[in-house]
Amino acid sequence: MSNLNHPSVMRVRAWLAQAGSTAEVIELNETARSAQDAADSIGTELGSIVKSLVFAVAGKPVMALVAGDRQCDTQALAAALAAALGGAGKAKRADADLVREATGFAIGGVAPVAHERNLPIVIDASLGRFTTVYAAAGHPYCVFATSLAELARLTGAEVREDIAKTG
Prior knowledge:
This protein has 167 residues and is α/β, with parallel strands linked by helices. It is 29% helix and 29% strand.
């Protein structure tokens, strides 16, 4: 069976179509479980990979979409989402159970769209270095290509300069 027919991938494909996106899900021959794996499988720069990172801020799940060659600045993330969450708190990496509960996806295939819950999301502006960026599509062997502008439109997220850092 093709991974394109996996229920999580089908959910992402349907969500993209309903949102008016022309993005197509790409099935890879190699895993995209990590940003480096995805970049190697696609043959693209690490920075063009969108990491969909789930954190808990003030006990509520949130998402940061960060370039593959950057790290999320958790203090900046918490501050960026303070208003949406009714106050600031510390951002802590979500465990696998919270990731699945909030998004409906398992770690390694968390898409930036088609979540089980409506999550506050922010996007790392450094993804704008690339014409095309690649995001997980619900399975470790599936991604979809998009642009920073379309990713912002699809997620309703704010693009921020301060939520990611190098190294």
